[in-house]
Amino acid sequence: MGKKDTDKIVTNDFPRREFIKNASLAVLGTLLGSKIVFAESFPKGLIPEALLLEESPFTISGKNNGLIVLNDRPINAETPPHLLDPNVTPNDIMFVRNNGIPPEDVNVNKWTLTIEGESAEQTKTYTIANLKSKFKEYTYQLTLECGGNGRSEFTPPAKGNQWTTGAVACPNWTGVKLKDVLKDVGIKSNAVYIGYYGKDTHLSGDPTKVVISRGVPIEKGMEDEALIAWSMNGEEIPYMNGAPLRLVIGGWPASTSGKWLSKIVIRDKVHDGPKMGGKSYRIPKNGIAPGTKVPDEDYEIIESMPVKSLVTFPKTGAIVKADQQFEVRGHAWAGDLEVKAVDVSIDFGSSWISCSVTKPVNRLAWQHFSTKITLPEQGYYEIWARATDIQGKSQPMVLPGWNPKGYLNNACHRIAIKRL
Ligand SMILES: Nc1nc2c(c(=O)[nH]1)N[C@H]1C(S)=C(S)[C@@H](COP(=O)(O)O)O[C@H]1N2
Ligand SMILES: [Mo]
Q: Under a CB-based contact definition with an 8 Å cutoff, are residues 383 and 344 in contact?
């Protein structure tokens, strides 16, 4: 049975149960993503409780229990749309995307950030106290969305975390401008890119292996809104979101926003850290048929994220009374661009109702849309939302350009509604 949501179609997955019943302890451990401690005492033929549930029952310390854990080594968890309803995403609601194991020691007083690289005039190290005293502090609300958000919809399927819609958030970030710190160090005229390094450790346990080290062109890093942040919504950044210091690059794949930030390099070429090359956060330059293999040199790095929206109210599965007028609302964002319009449909895209859309509180913050709706007769409906950016690009109704790693799915969000 569905654990908590009545809006799900419940399937009796008998073949899977039979398989699990007969599985070896090693296979059960693989399915659980953890070894079973005291396995020698585990009754033969019993199905582990965690595998009887539709969704992972595990929760993350410091995070809302409503987050859906996709993986616990490394920890990855997404936010259901209705929890993203607040205009500013609360700390315990923001999704978590880890590629490795978070660092154990995140002492604010001892933490340092080093700036170096072939296009840095010098190597300089700052404590967090140094950053706070030396540079002016700024707060911006910035949208971070994982490049793989929406991956679960791709066919043929793409490997990786099966994000549905919840790898996006837009909290307030406080810190110093990356450009102020880079200028303090000195940027050589041949600088083209910046790259970050964090203090998380590789899943293999090998201390010499870097988990992820991505970056952005120097122009993006020099934007007003590119921050080195120590605070989220006026509090410490949650441990899982990169405390005590992280880079925040709004509008681009969130993989460019390095967590547990310890080093920034100023490069004279495109940064080449782990997950900058190959198929990582890169898509084929030209559209390809689903399933096609493309040589690495025909890929390009994902930059600004595409236009997208999310219905955060009502919650999918809501049942509304006859003739009840209700509000439909949510957020819309468009990478480096602004959102011009959001339309919703109650008839599977045959006609569209235009919504009111707020201006962003600052550049690179998501915007909010709302409209009031009444449903004409009793029955099942879907509400679809479609945002359009200021350049006139709209979200596609169905999955856009298939790519091997399942990036950039900005298809319209749909919710299910019944009217009595
Ligand atoms: N040091 C470090 N920074 C990182 C990551 C990571 O695994 N390690 N993951 C990246 C990816 S892929 C994403 S989508 C965002 C996720 O940020 P969040 O976990 O705060 O939501 O962090 C990015 N920064
Ligand atoms: Mo990501």
A: yes
